[in-house]
Specification:
Shape: globular
Structural class: alpha+beta
Oligomer: single chain
CATH superfamily of one domain: Galactose-binding domain-like
GO molecular function, one term: carbohydrate binding
Radius of gyration: 25 Å
CATH architecture of one domain: Sandwich
Distance between the termini: 38 Å
Keywords: Signal
Organism: Actinacidiphila cocklensis
Number of helices: 14
Protein name: Trehalase
Length: about 675
């Protein structure tokens, strides 16, 4: 049986914001949910399944009621609407998470929920001025400004915009004059920790030391608090740009608008002067107060440089050419610091956070990098599908749920847990679909559509998407990024913008060309002819995997089943644990060469160190076949056995065989792989 990851040190370190969990305010019903549909059933299984899980994560699991005494210090919240917490292990919204989740997805999918969540991070000072709640994580306050501007762009809510501008202006003034994590006039940059790297594991030595002896947090370290980091200065640049946009939109004096634009321009110039490294063809991660630089890679820093337009076109091309990704996606900071390793990656170092993957995918789509966008999106979809939803952190080499390591002095190195149901992991994926696949952008005049539909995904349709006063169906045909035709309710549109004034139900159809047609999964079949374009397969099965051996970590695992590596003897990159409560399941798609009805045999490799035989239920395409016995293997969870079930009825080319813990089962096994073979017609 898998054991829990060591060390639960509480949530105070990893996120700032008001304390307190659910309270008395009642949450109003959320809008009806959109649906994502692919004509290709394998794309539906990979991407559509993850999309539904992400919607549930944001709008059900992590939408909570709240205590007005704790959260409504701004006096601007709607007590009939909920807020979005940071995740399953974090009951608060937190400024940074509230901002990222609203920017990624919530402002589009549930504007009232996003507005409430954004206001939950805002206080009033003694004079009644609105400001972001003050704490030692200044980058949280600054990213809020970009989220607030995006909320206005999506919704057109001018009342919100006016109050958001007041909040942004007051908060930026505080930051400019702060003694700690303020402005360094020598370099023309802001000091303080990098965006979301609030643990010292996210920093090399210096500013850290080899044993992380000062603190597990980052700001207590003098080198961090006085240092300058790429991502933080980029979010300041975006904040100034968006404060100028806000000021212009609400009719503030021209000099006020120009002042913010001048500050943004000066900061952009300083970022490029101080962080761009011609030798590496990319941006450095850090600049310490004594002039020490760090030619390390920061995933969010590279993404922000592209998203916010800090990099010029030549720099953007160079970033894409030189960026290092891990097997399972864009890491936070990279490479391993000397005190960490592939076996023990740092919590914020050479490890994959989906929030970073989402930002990187957004940047890739904006740059027209079709193959990179497809691969990053496929990675996160597979991580979610294989691990019962969206976790906080994954091992970049194995894809296993992994919270990473930190030191605490000379002798202690502890292993963090990766929290389940992490909201910004789910909203990262939702943004991959909304702003990447469908290319949705927002402005005063309407909704722009600039899709990125990779070869091999097949036609894609987003139904029931609420945008202001309209409900939209958006259908993509073909593949690529070049729009051959764009129609609204059958009438051709010139340009790429759908009016913001639409009301009622409407259908947008986009036909695309210009696809990059390579072989992303390296199985010898071009993407346009590969039915499973992002999963290696065989020519016999048109690019889909041979079901003769499916590793359990590559199955669809739900209900709490997830990857682990804390026992030995498994094959592949991991095994599946968590199958010890009703509702957990592992589902295997059997790709066949025929759609004719027949029977198959199923062999499962499993571990059972319980004192007795355990049982699970076997189903095919949702129809119960029977109960499977898993005899005790030994008294060690490192020992593995197999069980074979013959005569399993199947039909269609892609039947789904599920092993689940149902009423009447006692479960509590680990699964390693499934193997299918013909059992006769």
């Amino acid at each position: 049986m898998a054991t829990a990851m060591a060390v639960a040190l509480g949530t105070a370190l990893y996120g700032a914001g008001a304390a307190g969990a659910a309270g008395t305010a009642a949450a109003a019903p959320a809008p009806s949910l959109p649906s994502l549909e692919f004509a290709n059933p394998n794309s539906q299984a990979l991407y559509g399944t993850a999309y539904q899980a992400a919607l549930k994560n944001l709008l059900q699991t992590n939408t909570i009621t709240w205590d007005p005494a704790v959260y409504d210090k701004s006096g601007l919240m709607d007590q009939d609407v909920g807020i979005v917490r940071a995740g399953g292990g974090y009951p608060q919204p937190w400024t940074r998470d509230a901002s990222v989740n609203s920017w990624n997805a919530a402002s589009l999918l549930d504007p009232a929920l996003a507005r409430n969540t954004l206001w939950s991070a805002v206080d009033k000072d003694a004079s009644g001025n609105l400001q972001l709640q003050q704490d030692d994580q200044q980058w949280d306050q600054v990213i809020w400004v970009t989220a607030a501007w995006n909320h206005y762009q999506v919704t057109g809510d001018k009342t919100f915009l006016s109050e958001a501008y007041t909040t942004a202006a007051d908060t930026l003034a505080i930051r400019e004059h702060a003694g700690t994590a303020g402005y360094n006039s020598t370099y023309g940059l802001f000091t303080g920790a990098s965006f979301f790297n609030d643990g010292i594991a996210g920093y090399p030595a210096p500013p850290a030391d080899a044993t992380e002896s000062v603190s597990t947090g980052s700001m207590p370290w003098p080198g961090v608090s006085t240092g300058m980091f790429l991502s933080t200065n980029e979010v300041y640049y975006a904040a100034y740009t968006n404060a100028a946009n806000m000021a212009a939109r609400i009719g503030r004096p021209a000099g006020e608008v120009a002042g913010y634009r001048a500050k943004a321009a000066a900061l952009k110039s300083a970022i490029n002067k101080r962080f761009w490294n011609p030798a590496t063809g990319s941006y450095n991660y850090m600049l310490l107060a004594d002039g020490t630089t760090g030619a390390y890679q920061e995933g969010t820093g590279l993404a922000f440089a592209l998203i916010f337009g800090i990099a010029n076109p030549a720099q953007a091309r160079s970033i894409l050419a030189h960026a290092d990704e891990m097997t399972w996606g864009m890491p936070d900071t990279y490479p391993n610091w000397s005190r960490y390793s592939d076996d023990q990656p740092g919590r914020h170092n050479a490890i994959v956070w989906p929030v970073v993957q989402g930002l990187w995918a957004k940047a890739l789509a904006q740059q027209g990098a079709q193959e990179g966008f497809a691969t990053e999106t496929a990675h996160l979809a597979a991580l979610a599908d294989g691990n019962s939803g969206f976790w906080e952190i994954y091992n970049g080499n194995t894809g296993v749920v992994d919270g990473g390591y930190q030191r605490l002095g000379d002798t202690v190195k502890f292993h963090w847990g990766s929290q389940p149901d992490q909201t910004w992991s789910a909203t990262a994926y939702l943004n991959m679909i909304d702003s990447g696949l469908f290319g949705l952008g927002f402005g005063d005049h309407g909704l722009t559509v600039a899709p990125t539909l990779p070869a091999g995904w097949g036609d894609a349709t987003l139904r029931g998407l609420h945008y202001r006063d309209a409900t939209l169906t958006i259908a993509l045909h073909g593949a690529g990024t070049k729009i051959r035709s764009l129609t609204l309710d059958g009438r051709r549109l010139h340009g790429d913008t759908v009016p913001a004034s639409l009301k009622g139900e409407h259908t947008i159809e986009v036909t695309l060309t210009g696809a990059v047609d390579k072989d992303r999964d390296a199985d010898g079949i071009r993407d346009s002819h590969d039915l499973c374009a992002d999963t290696a397969g065989t020519a016999t099965l048109h690019g889909c995997p041979d079901p003769a051996r499916i590793e359990a970590e590559d199955a669809l695992n739900t209900g709490g089943a997830k990857t682990n590596v804390n026992h030995t003897g498994y094959s592949g990159r991991a095994f599946i644990d968590g199958l010890w409560s009703q509702g957990t399941a592992s589902s295997y798609t059997v790709h066949r060469t025929t759609s004719a009805a027949g029977t198959e045999s199923l062999t499962l490799r499993y571990a059972n160190a319980n004192s007795d035989t355990r049982t699970m239920t076997l189903s095919v395409d949702g129809r119960k076949v029977g109960q499977v016995n898993f005899p005790r293997v030994s008294d060690s969870w490192d020992s593995w056995g197999t069980v074979t079930v013959d005569g399993i009825p199947v039909s269609g080319r892609d039947p789904v065989v599920t092993v689940s813990y149902e009423a009447g089962d006692n479960g509590s096994i680990n699964l390693d792989w499934a193997q299918f073979g013909s059992g006769g017609a």
